[in-house]
Design a protein that fits this description.
The complex is a heterodimer of chains A (122) and B (236).
Chain A lengths: L10 H14 L12 H8 L3 H13 L3 E3 L5 E3 L3 H25 L4 H15 L1
Antiparallel strand pairs in A: 1-2
Chain B lengths: L2 E12 L2 E12 L3 E5 L6 H9 L6 E6 L2 E2 L2 H4 L2 E4 L11 H11 L5 H10 L13 H13 L5 E5 L7 H13 L6 E5 L3 H4 L5 E6 L2 E7 H8 L3 H8 L7
Parallel strand pairs in B: 3-8, 3-9, 6-7, 7-8
Antiparallel strand pairs in B: 1-2, 1-4, 4-5, 9-10
Classes of the chains: A mainly alpha (122), B alpha/beta (236).
Chain lengths: 122, 236
């Protein structure tokens, strides 16, 4: 997995997003076991304490479930996964809107640009 | 959470010049802490005092509740900012030296690190490149099972890939009962690894705390905050 921590938000928040994305893109499919804190921390080159914090937050949001000593698993509850997907898309869209607004582009104009670009790609 | 390091009213003068001024810090166990400050701010002086290589002008230092002295040497694994090895020894001989000297030295760990870094065992230390020498020193220091690791500029002289490996080593070596104090200028490189940070300037702590709390509050990376706090150039 490629981990990148670029901006000034807390690292644990950025780790949470990475793991959410990994779940939504199928790197960690629903019901699968995720690697241990140490393995993930080593892979991401972050502090294990920070990784632990991120995983605990993801457990609170029900995306991850701890099964006793077996380890941590991705939830199989599709409602939770859909909610995570919606939230991620929402954040992405908001970020885009902000960037367009800074250039004086309204959401309507941005939508048209998206459609045009999409057509050209296809 | 236990306190690994405690300094009380710690000051150090060098022939009248105050290098550290009345430092009171307490570092908990299980943390990776960045000691960050501009050149000449007192980072190396603080580390040398903790390692017992300098004596305080005033105040005291305790490591795991024990005043700094012969006994604390066994609890501290120290990476100095310069080489102190006998440079005509081979890497293998240096390993033997560490094994003789430190009861907590894990030779297997050092051997595996050195092989991952592709450092031959049978060559003399002085024939290695500057970066390779630093890697050997760090591998030896991190192969001890100490309570407190003092790393003075551990990544300054090595290439980015080796830097990644060194940070990986620090992270995977993590022990909840030990604390790692890293002094460096390369903040962006170490930032994801740090739990906490200490900004030091002119011998005084000017700012300390949890890296994630700071990011949460300011929306800045540690690197950005450092550049702001220690700014030398006027902004546009």
């Amino acid at each position: 997995m490629v981990w990148k921590f670029s901006d000034g938000r807390p690292v644990y928040v950025q780790i949470m997003e990475h793991i959410q994305t990994a779940v939504l893109t199928g790197i960690f499919p629903p019901g699968s076991k995720i690697p241990s804190v140490r393995e993930l921390a080593a892979d991401a080159k972050v502090n294990p304490n920070t990784m632990q914090h991120a995983l605990q937050e993801l457990e609170q949001s029900m995306l991850l479930i701890t099964q006793g000593t077996l380890g941590r698993f991705v939830t199989q509850d599709s409602a939770v996964i859909d909610a995570a997907r919606n939230k991620l898309l929402h954040n992405l869209t908001q970020e885009c809107i902000k960037k367009y607004a800074a250039l004086g582009i309204s959401p309507e104009q941005a939508a048209n640009l998206l459609l045009e670009c999409g057509k050209r790609e296809a | 959470m236990d306190i690994v390091l405690q300094t009380s009213n710690l000051s150090k003068n060098y022939s009248g010049i105050r290098a550290l001024n009345n430092l009171n810090i307490a570092l908990p166990s299980g943390k990776i802490i960045g000691l960050l400050g501009p050149n000449g701010s007192g980072k190396t002086t603080l580390i040398k005092l903790i390692a017992g290589l300098l004596t305080p002008t005033e105040g005291s230092i305790e490591v795991c509740g024990v005043p700094v002295g012969p006994e604390t040497k066994s609890m501290i694994s120290y990476l100095p900012d310069r080489v102190y090895f006998n440079q005509s020894q081979t890497v293998e001989q240096l390993l033997n030296y560490f094994q003789d000297f430190y009861a907590d030295f894990d030779r297997q760990r050092a051997v595996s690190m050195l092989s991952m870094l592709r450092i031959p065992m049978n060559v003399k230390f002085k024939t290695l490149s500057k970066g390779a020498r630093e890697k050997v020193q760090l591998a030896l220091v991190m192969s001890r099972r100490a309570k407190l690791y003092l790393l003075d500029e551990p990544i300054a002289g090595v290439d980015p890939a080796a830097r990644d490996f060194i940070l990986h080593t620090i992270v995977t070596n993590y022990d909840p009962t030990a604390t790692v104090l890293i002094s460096t200028h390369l903040i962006a490189d170490v930032e994801p690894v740090l739990d906490e940070f200490l900004f030091i300037n002119m011998g005084q702590i000017i700012c300390l705390g949890s890296v994630d709390d700071m990011r949460d509050k300011t929306g800045k990376t540690l690197d950005e905050l450092f550049r702001e706090v220690f700014k030398c150039l006027p902004s546009l």
